[in-house]
Amino acid sequence: MAIRLPNMASKLSRVSCLMAPGTSVFTLQLKPGKSVKLTGIFAKFLQFEDSIWLKDCVPAK
């Protein structure tokens, strides 16, 4: 979950997740149109793109 301050956009338009090392087998199984739950560590917020980047993402348990 991202913390939203009063002067920020009402919603994020994109969340990008850089997969953790060792998750290539899981990553290769991802298919268009399917959903997946991941957990990751905050990396950066791009204000003008209303997007957030996470790093070291792994499948949620």
Strand order of the largest sheet: 1-3-2
Quickly give the structural class.
mainly beta
Number of H/I helices: 1
Task: Write down the secondary-structure element order.
Answer: EHEE
What proportion strand? 35-45%
Overall 3D geometry? Answer: elongated
Helix content percent band: under 10%
Q: Distance N terminus to C terminus? A: 16 Å
How many domains is the backbone divided into? Answer: 1
What is the tally of beta strands? 3
User: What is the overall pLDDT average?
Assistant: 84
Note poorly predicted spans: none
Largest sheet entry: 3 strands, mixed
Q: Rg to the nearest angstrom?
A: 13 Å
Question: How would you describe this protein?
Answer:
The chain has one helix at residues 24-28; strands at 14-19, 38-46, 51-59. It has 61 residues and is mainly β. It has one domain. Strands 1-3-2 form a 3-stranded mixed beta sheet. The protein starts with 13 loop residues before the first strand and ends with a strand. The mean pLDDT is 84.
Task: List key phrases describing it.
single chain, 61 residues, mainly beta, 3-stranded mixed beta sheet, 1 helix, 8% helix, elongated
Question: What is the gist of this entry?
Answer:
This protein has 61 residues and is mainly β. The chain has one helix and three strands; from the N terminus they run E-H-E-E. Helices cover 8% and strands 39% of the residues.
